[in-house]
Amino acid sequence: MNKKLVGLFHLILVFVLLLSACSGGNESAPSESGGTVSEEDKQGGTLVYGRGADAVSLDPINVTDGESIRVTHNIFETLLEYDENLELQPKLATEYNSSEDGLTWTFQLREGVKFHDGTDFNADAVVFNFERWMDPENPYHKGDFPYYPFLYGGFKGDENHLIEHVKATGEHELEIKLKRKTAPFLSYLAISMFGIASPAAIEQYEGEVNEQPVGTGPFVFEEWSRNNTITLAKNPDYWMEGKPYLDKVIFQVIPENSARLNALQTGEIDVLDGMNATDTNVVEETQGLELLKRPSFNIGYMAFNTEKEPFDDPKVRQAINMAINKEEIVNAFYNGLADTATSPLPPSLWGYDDTLEPYEYNVEEAKKLLAEAGYENGFETELYTMSNPRPYMPEPVKIAEAIQSDLAEVGITAEIRSSEWATYLDDTKQGKHSMAMYGWTGVMADPDNFLYPNLSKTNTEKPAQNIAFYKSDEFTSLITEARETIDQDKRIELYKQAQQLFQKDAPWVMLAYTTPPLAQVDYVEGYEPHPMTNDLLTDVYLTNQQ
């Protein structure tokens, strides 16, 4: 593992690099110390990335959680990708165009790319992946494949399935034909869940690639010790010449925020994701550490299970929205790195409705609504929460305790039930909860990604992504029409109508929009936290290699 060197070593390193730059040598880049770092000097080393929870699966098509995607995004690549400015860029597809009717899309694929097992990436490989994803009868269609029906209207054979066909029209040319116009279609191809896997590996492991991921990305899967570490090694045949720089990346699970910060301070880890907001001050005051901020692109909320009494009554849900002091929660647990939330869309995303009237904190009005619903004396219930920190919820148990205290003021006794991340996801998707802490970080820059997976009635079949089990025909109709409308102004109007309806029906208590803090040691260079949390480590290097 790389340790932080200080004092004399830094002075010597700067002097050596300056001499190297003056003598010609390799192409070089500026360093933090004001000298330069050559491409050769960037090579090597192991980065230890500390985080609060383990991945659920390393088969990207079978996950929706950020901890899994954080790893798989460095193993697999998609046809297109979102850059740090949330603009679509080419990846495994270098060019694309569509027919006049917007239904037939042709993609030119990158040549000279190989999967980690040495087999060729080509159009047939992409077709193989789509067939696995979309066809429940495919022998390699093993798992839930949750994101595919969110986006493509079900699977092959379903009435609303979006895709007419996916076929290779050349070794590196692909055609995808849609049954209807779909405004965010290109965005779908940039979602990490649709990373292209090696057909040979899928066949070898008979579709059970959860622990045998083989992609085209900058890093190769090496080892997974559950709830401890995932180790990736440099892809020596990566198509970007000279990259990645690192020899290895280790994703280290340290559940407690304070323990993770201590590990950063002692040099056990090099990057820290997820911390108590108040600890940002500690990082800023500690020599050798650097505070980073992930651009805000998330929502944090508490979902009601609307299939269970009394949460099937909108008045109860509205009352609880008024009973929770959201501003106090944000002030207490986010240290200035969050704003109170109103909409299920983040303010940074187009389509956000800034005219929504928030539920103001009002204990007396909450009591009045509960009485009108027949719960004058309150009731007993359960509040589920994850034990691990999330980007939208840095201290989930403490936030749940604050909500528990607020609910007690209106006569509601809430027992807190906490579990680790993978178990928590399973329990809530199966609808075991009455109320549950939750959140979402966008994986594409389109309102469809926030609203359709989490609130469409089509996503309430267990295991459900819509854990509120909100089944509004009107809401689903609005977001479906928006998905199939090309004119963005019209889409915005439809999304605003949907947000107004959401506000009235109150299937969630909106809590916060956050700017998640991270930290690193000062010898880590090139790490840029991505708004969607799918951080690529291709350009990361260490300046203190031993």
From TrEMBL:
It is a lipid-anchor. Residues 87-460 form the Solute-binding protein family domain. Its main location: membrane. It is found in: Cell membrane. CDD domains: PBP2_DppA_like. The keyword Nucleotidyltransferase does not apply. InterPro entries: Peptide/Ni-bd, SBP_5, SBP_5_CS, SBP_5_dom. GO terms for cellular component: ATP-binding cassette (ABC) transporter complex; periplasmic space. PROSITE patterns: PROKAR_LIPOPROTEIN, SBP_BACTERIAL_5. GO terms for biological process: peptide transport. Keywords: Signal, Transport. One of its GO terms (molecular function) is peptide transmembrane transporter activity. The keyword Transport applies. PANTHER family: OLIGOPEPTIDE-BINDING PROTEIN APPA, PERIPLASMIC BINDING COMPONENT OF ABC TRANSPORTER. Belongs to the bacterial solute-binding protein 5 family. This is Peptide/nickel transport system substrate-binding protein. It comes from Planomicrobium soli.
